[in-house]
Amino acid sequence: xxxxxxxFVVVGSGIAGLMTALYLRNAGQVTILTKAQQEESNSxxxxxxxxxxxxxxxxxxxxxxxxxxxxxxxxxxxxxDLMVEMAPKTIEQLVEWGTRFDQENGHYALGREGSHSVxxxxxxxxxxxxxxxxxxxxxxxxQSEQIEIETHTMVIDLLVSSQGICQGVVTVAAAQPPTLYLxxxxxxxxxxxxxxxxxxxxxxxxVTGDGFAIAKRAGAKLSDMEFIQFHxxxxxxxxxxxxxxxxAVRGEGAILRNSTGEAxxxxxxxxxxxxPRDIVSRAIYHEMSQGRKVYLDATILxxxxxxxxxxxxxxxxxxxIDPTKDWIPVTPAAxxxxxxxxxxxxxxxxxxxxxxxxxxxxxGVHGANRLAxxxxxxxxxFAQRVAEKLSTLEPQSFDPVMKVTYPDMCxxxxxxxxxxxxxxxxMWEHAGIIRTSSGLIEGIERLMELRREVxxxxxxxxxxxxxxxxxxxxxxxxxESRGGHYRFDYPETIPEWSTxxxxx
Length: 504
Ligand SMILES: Cc1cc2nc3c(=O)[nH]c(=O)nc-3n(C[C@H](O)[C@H](O)[C@H](O)COP(=O)(O)OP(=O)(O)OC[C@H]3O[C@@H](n4cnc5c(N)ncnc54)[C@H](O)[C@@H]3O)c2cc1C
What we know:
The chain is an alpha/beta fold and 504 residues long. 34% of the residues lie in helices and 19% in strands.
């Protein structure tokens, strides 16, 4: 088996992986391993922006309040404090590394999104924030001699020594034998979320929950995995991933209507169209279950739409919808996971020398529901913490008895696609926007059957199955409704559950 030694292994080339690598570059040699092309990530797709309290009428304490309220009593206060306090400085760092946030009259233009009490969303190119940020980070990374990026390289497992210390990763790549990447100082998982577990999702095809499964197999603790955020407004046309209509469009005045033309959100929440995402998603789901279609009416923006949201405008036109005149058909879709690999404030997991950053990590900042535009921020802020901690570690020597054997990767693409389709359907039906005990039990049984069918060598499907199982088991355990987890059989939010976390 091929062996490569480096100081730091970073898995993933989204905002979390890239920023960790950039912060680490003066502390040693960094190897970024990424499953597809460098740009392929949810970070690249992000539209609306990144939150930071930099406006005149804003403050970190207001940002903190909005984050905690949206997280429905389940956030870790200390993590939230750290994130909102570090946000303005993190924005300066992004600017230093080349991001050009949109400006208006000599100041940063700040957008508004659901559940934010003030306008605090910085954006790039109107609605191309993720592409703007990741492109500039990638430019920096490519210029650094200390950073190497291996593309189309999939990490399938962690290497853990006989003392339980993370020493590296195992990878597979087309036309290469499996390779061991040994990390003298540590490994960072920045593999993103798991939207592709669901039939309807906004997430990139690479976002299949690998990091959760890899960490779990190695013995790391995960928690809060039942909390999935369903974005209310994906464009309702049949495609994977689904095209997102950013919440910022509602922030600019667009409203939801059902097929009778009714602006229905006032029936569901006092904040109407800017209510928290779980409430808007369930409201849409409810309208749809009554046989009504749902649309986003952005015609109030008129010709301003194309200037403010050029990417969304083009995306709609491609499907024959002109948002300046037509209502946009929308549907909820799986978008984000609030839980993940448990970490402390430095991104340290429960396995020594294994760190997690970004959507794959459970830092506690999102609680039961994420405030819009806080996830790019989480990745960017905690990347610095992870790098600072990792830089202080002494190099380790490698366990000489470490032996790894893996089945050959022999993939029948058609069978793989069919297994994925079945799994995604199951998750949508059994662990979707509205869950029940009987539905989850049936879902777990169906999942187990599927697990028995899929050979070990289908690493990605295996990861999807394991992550799906963890989500279903966590959802079954939580007998209440809170944020991104809604149980039809336990519809109330029960105060005693606010201190409970399903750790697995
Ligand atoms: C359409 C869309 C719009 C969004 N808009 C916003 C927004 O406006 N603001 C906001 O804050 N958030 C937004 N989000 C959420 C946000 O984009 C993500 O939560 C965030 O980008 C996650 O960053 P990350 O670095 O953790 O993971 P990602 O950016 O998803 O990157 C994961 C990386 O890991 C790699 N990877 C995965 N598994 C493996 C493996 N086994 N081996 C090797 N590499 C692997 C992938 O290839 C990828 O490079 C949006 C999400 C979507 C889908």
